[in-house]
Amino acid sequence: MKKENKGLIHMIRWGITLFLPLVILLTTLQVFVFDKDFYLKEFSKYEIPKVTGMSMADLERVAEKMIRYLKDEDKDLVIEGTVKGERREVFGEREKQHMVDVKNLFQGGYFLRNIGIFSIIAAILLLSRLAHRASTEIYKGIFHSSILTFMLMGLLLILMQIDFYKYFTYFHEIFFDNDLWLLDPNKEVLIQMLPLEFFIDIATRVVLWFVGIMIAMGGIAYVRLRKATY
């Protein structure tokens, strides 16, 4: 039997450890961001029809438009609705320009997720060829990724509870190179539709689901590793 290159196998296994959480996180985020029912529940919860002066039917149409836009199914965010009794285009130029940046961020996320999927598949195939006990190495990668996730997301949840707005602001300053995200809640519909509380709710759900999935996968991997030991 050919001797294993343990250093190479360890490096390949780290590909699973690092990319698996990334793929699961971005996929979980996508599920919630593209869930129209989630938006409608939030609109009702925070009385968004009253805040925006729009009917729930119009808000639903706008939410559908935003989802299609972020999926790149629609090329613009031009949509009309009745806002406080006036028939007008819902979003102004500043709001639309900010959503261009948001869409670009999402497209970058899709690209990164796809790289992650490719890297995980490549790591599994390489381990299958190079490791004597490939399944054990794969489960080690999954188990370690769950530990890494639990530590990082635990810290993130603590920071979110301490001062969500502070770290939400840091996020925008890191990922956007302009101030278009600083919208006026007194007159711009986008921020009225999606207040800070909306982002707290979606971030909390994404993190909890993400951590839950990773813990479940880590638990399965741990059981498999225990069986392989004995």
What descriptive keywords fit this protein?
mainly alpha, Lit, single chain, membrane, Integral membrane protein (TIGR01906 family), 77% helix, 230 residues, 3% strand, transmembrane
What low-confidence regions span 5 or more consecutive residues with pLDDT below 50? Answer: none
What is the radius of gyration computed over CA atoms, rounded to a whole number of angstroms?
Answer: 22 Å
Shape: elongated
Helix/strand class: mainly alpha
Binned, the helix content reads: over 70%
Biggest β-sheet: count, sense, barrel? 2 strands, antiparallel
Distance between the termini: 22 Å
The number of distinct structural domains comes to 1
Strand order, sheet with most strands: 1-2
Number of DSSP E strands = 2
Architecture overview:
This is Integral membrane protein (TIGR01906 family). The chain crosses the membrane at residues 12-34, 110-130, 142-162, 202-223. With 230 residues, the chain is mainly alpha-helical. It has 8 helices and 2 strands, in the order H-H-H-H-E-E-H-H-H-H. The protein has one domain (6-229). 77% of the residues lie in helices and 3% in strands. The protein has a two-stranded antiparallel ribbon. Helix 1 (6-33) crosses helix 6. The mean pLDDT is 92.
